[in-house]
Amino acid sequence: MKVVNSQEMTKIDSLTINQYGIPSFVLMERAALAVANHILKRKPKDVVVIAGPGNNGGDGIALSRILKDKVRKIKVFLPFSEDKLSEDCKNQIKIALNFGVPIVWSFPSEKDLLEADFIVDAIFGTGLKRDIEGELRDFIERVNSLKKFIVSIDIPSGVSSDTGQILGAAIKADLTITFGALKRGHLLYPGRDFVGQIFVEDIGFPKELLDEIKVHIIDKDFAKTLVPPRPKYSHKGKYGHLLIVAGSVGKTGAALMTAKAALRSGSGLVTLAVPSIIDTVFQANVFEEMILSLPSTAQTLSKSAIPEILSFIIDKANCVAFGPGVGVNEDIEEILKSIILQSPYPLVIDADGITVLSKIRDILKEAKSEIVLTPHPGELSRLINLSVKEIEKNRVDITKQVAEEFKVVVVLKGVPTVISNPEGLTFINTTGNPGMATAGSGDVLTGIIGSLIGQGVKSFYAAVLGVYLHGLSGDIASKDKGFHGLVAGDIIESIPKAFLELTDASNSER
Fold it and tell me: How far is residue 248 CA from its own chain's centroid?
């Protein structure tokens, strides 16, 4: 499903009207009918519509006319002066008055609000850029405090449609009906908390205009198409050999979790490349995994391990995961640089690997093969010298910019996780929960993505599917563990159930 920003939505709306010839009044009528259908399913009695001065207000006024003879009482409140109204809004007022819809040019009284069982928010749509202040801000906060059933048209008023930020104050809706495509503010926090249940309705925007949009959500139907087949005639060599360069003194768990997640995700073979100084720790904790013991410093892998690592990659592996618990020093920097410049196979870089990469980031443009970066906002902040606050305020565009600049796939972890490729194709994830904010969760994701690449899924789509599976596994685990008690190992153990949700339980060849 497509996701647009306000500029893209304005362009789609304008081209639909001016190039394709569908009048704005027709679009408004279709929008109002779509909202009316959702409201009537919930059998309202007394409805209050708060209308703004623009076309979002026009949608609300058209809605009131449609609902007039289908509910016990409806009243429209327009707390804006007439000189601020759009032409379509003015025309909808004339029609509504002809139909006998009561329109009051003020805020609703306390009595009106208390008597209503449904409140419709048609104040501002996707074009709002400034903060809501003064009397309107106080009114929105009062409406939210009443615990009435609130329906927002297009997007809750006060939520930025581009960033999900709250512009002064915002309506907290129970139900939002939007048109043509999701808006970024529906998915990005904190706006996502204000949307409630959301529906996307087709009101006639041409498909070819929507097809130009490069941002999507990952839903289950799409994720199913990315799962690699598992033919009945199989052997472990068909499902990839992932080399995981990870681990250092005090950080063995990260490497082990990456490996176990990779195996649970379908890897045929997994080898852990680890410092010899701690290889006995790994030997005592692995069963299906293999160990490649390499020269080490007192804490980490040594740069003298580079020839052996490269030889292993070229001769045996078909994907490399680098970084979980690997440590940060000049030796690790030299190892990473060599792999980026010489590995013929895709590389997933995470955790300490991204911290090290921040010192040599321009080398990404010289990479011999595809690279996937999986930073959380703090790691990305170090990589691009931008504050975490700025990254969180604009997750989608910043992810796209980094992917395009460095010619890599970027997985910006968080809520929600965003994945972009160098061509600007971007996906916003829809799975996951607060319980996954736990140590090792990112290491699990690295293992899943590396495993999928090793099985033959293209790097970008391995990242997209990997993120969805990771979140789905966490959602499955939380059903038994809750949010507070969830740990990364629970996510790993739920990966098989996540695959079952996306495939035929018989695991037959597709």
Answer: 32
Q: What is the DSSP letter of 440?
A: T
pLDDT per residue as tens digits for the range 36-68: 999 999 999 999 999 999 999 999 999 999 999
Tens of pLDDT along 139-178?
999 999 998 999 999 999 999 999 999 999 999 999 999 9
Residue 476: CA atoms inside 13 Å, Cβ hemisphere, count? Answer: 20
Task: Tell me: pLDDT of 80 over 80.
Answer: yes
Which pairing describes strands 3-4 and 182-183: parallel, antiparallel, or unpaired? parallel
DSSP state of 213: -
User: What are the distances in angstroms from CA 86 to CA 72, 83, 93, 379?
Assistant: 29, 9, 11, 46
Give the domain ranges of the chain. Answer: 3-213, 220-227+236-502
193 within 8 A of 165, measured Cβ to Cβ = no
Percentage of the chain exceeding pLDDT 70 = 99
C-beta neighbour count of 397 within 10 angstroms = 17
Q: What number of other Cβ atoms are within 10 A of residue 76's Cβ? A: 27
Q: What is the 3-state secondary structure (H, E, C) of 91-142?
A: HHHHHHHHCCCCEECCCCCHHHHHHCCEEEEECCCCCCCCCCCHHHHHHHHH
**What would the pLDDT profile of 181-227 be if each residue is shown by its tens digit?**
999 999 999 999 999 999 999 999 999 999 999 999 999 999 999 99
Alpha-carbon span 255 to 260, nearest angstrom? 9
Rounded Cα distance, 177 and 161, in Å: 14
Per-residue pLDDT, 292: 97
pLDDT per residue as tens digits for the range 335-371: 999 999 999 999 999 999 999 999 999 999 999 999 9
Cα–Cα nearest to 372, from 424, 409, 422: 409
Contact 24, 88 (CB under 8 A): yes
**pLDDT value at position 382?**
96
Structure tokens at 221: 């139907």
Cβ–Cβ < 8 Å for 145, 165: no
Give residue 130's pLDDT: 94
- As assigned by CATH, the class of the 220-227+236-502 domain is alpha beta
Tell me the HSE value of 181 on the side-chain side, using a 13 A CA sphere: 30
**Inter-axis angle of helices 488-502 and 459-481, nearest 10:** 110
* Cα atoms found within 13 Å of the Cα of residue 455, Cβ hemisphere only: 29
Q: Which architecture characterizes domain 3-213 according to CATH?
A: 3-Layer(aba) Sandwich (3.40)
Ramachandran quadrant class, 461 (left: phi over 0; alpha: psi -120 to 50; beta: rest): alpha
- Answer whether residue 14 shows pLDDT above 90: yes
